[in-house]
Amino acid sequence: MRKIDTVAEMRAFAAKHRADGGRLSLVSTMGALHAGHEALIRAAMADGGTVVVSIFVNPLSFGPSENYPAYPRSLESDVELCRVLGVAAVFAPAVEEIYPKGYSTYVTEESISKTLCGISRPTHFRGVATWMTKLLNIVAPTRLYLGQKDSQHAAVIRKMAADLGYDIQFVTVPTVRETDGLAVSVRNRELTPTQRQDAAALHKALKRAKEMVEAGVRSNDRLIAEATHILGQHRRIRVIYASIVDIGTMEPVREIVPGRALMAIAAWVDEVRLADNVLL
Known about the structure:
The chain is an alpha/beta fold. It has two domains: 2-173, Rossmann fold (3-Layer(aba) Sandwich), CATH 3.40.50.620; 186-279, Pantoate--beta-alanine Ligase, Chain: A,domain 2, CATH 3.30.1300.10. Helices cover 39% and strands 20% of the residues. The chain has helices at 7-19, 35-46, 75-85, 95-98, 117-120, 124-139, 151-164, 193-199, 201-214, 220-232; strands at residues 2-4, 24-29, 50-55, 89-91, 143-147, 169-173, 237-246, 261-269, 272-279. The protein starts with a strand and ends with a strand. The model has no long low-confidence stretch (mean pLDDT 96).
């Protein structure tokens, strides 16, 4: 396995594998790899071809009140995990390699990025779209693997790729959950045992909404009311949003179409921000 630090070397590595006629799959991460990332990597490995994992804590995706320097970093162990899983290359550039001095060009998706997390984090998806545009240009993968947990990220990236004419196949991998139902996230390690008990209410609310839809409920208002009631029973939880949206556009829907509607929740558990979703 190769650890690649520069854009030039990554381009050369990717070009060689494309010239050899092989499939090139990409898993994009911010590092601090956990079971969710491992599921993405395993899915890419199972589909065959050459797998590249990017590890880059993107400063542009952090808002002015968000602590970019404190984001967990574990590059050495991340690289070792990728080696064990059989990844061909890890692309782990320095910030200066991606955004050199004087950098002033940004990519903005103007529709999907405006709802849900885009309301409370107005610059976040500009950072995501800018980095992903650069990354896709550098690697030019055949396939990009995305997690269902980050549904709005996935939708923004799909729209950006379609609008800018990228020829990429997208593969969505189901959310990996811990034994209490909590979606695996780098933020989970910040939770105390007591906070974690409250955090599990996010999955409980989503699970209840899905059960109601399976029982025939189609009212957006009823589902959101039930979810917020469940969340409201936990004093540490402050709801940022609880919404039901179209899986592709992230626009709110009034009536549920099973398989197209997504319930998405974001909440503070004391000072830890968590987000989760379920396809209804």
